[in-house]
Amino acid sequence: MKSPFTIFIKKLLIYTLIIGFLSLVLAFFLPDKIVSPAMPFLLLFFLIVNAVTMNIVLKTLAKKTSRFVNFFMISIFAKLMLYILIIVVYAIADVGDIVSFIITFFIYYLAFTVFELFAILKAQKENV
Predict the structure, then answer these.
(1) Which of 5, 23, 45, 81 is 20 to 30 Å from the Cα of 14, by its Cα?
(2) Taking the model in full, what pTM does it have?
(3) CA-to-CA distance for 93 and 110, rounded, in angstroms?
(4) How many CB atoms lie within 10 A of CB 109?
């Protein structure tokens, strides 16, 4: 039987490819100033962050439920701080497309957070 993490990674890769394809299609129809050139890097960034977080969450979930809740709250806070740091560093770098970067970042953040939340809820339900 496949591990829950392996199943999650496959679903995450498919989800990322779908989001990437939709982003590429939208990039052809939207004006250049709305589309951030950092879009593919943001996709990769969210893929990696979600994979690492979910790996740790699944390991923590297997140990203790009370420990899972603590880790889950800490991981949300840590990711939020990381996301803010990325946006601030990009703004300081003054690349010139900060507005499109933030819009793209926020859309990807919402998309990947919803995906991760459903995956965690499913894993928690299966662990009970």
Answers:
(1) 81
(2) 0.89
(3) 24
(4) 18
**Domain count of the chain?**
1
Residue located via tokens 């890097």: 41
Per-residue pLDDT at 31: 79
Separation CA 119–CA 123 (nearest Å): 6
What's the CA gap between 122 and 108, in Å, rounded?
21
- pLDDT at residue 42, rounded to an integer: 94
Name the residue range of residue 118's domain: 4-127
Instruction: Indicate if the pLDDT at residue 125 is higher than 90.
Output: no
116-122: which pairs have CB atoms within 8 A and are 24 or more residues apart? 116/50, 116/53, 116/54, 119/8, 119/11, 119/12, 119/54, 120/54, 120/57, 120/72
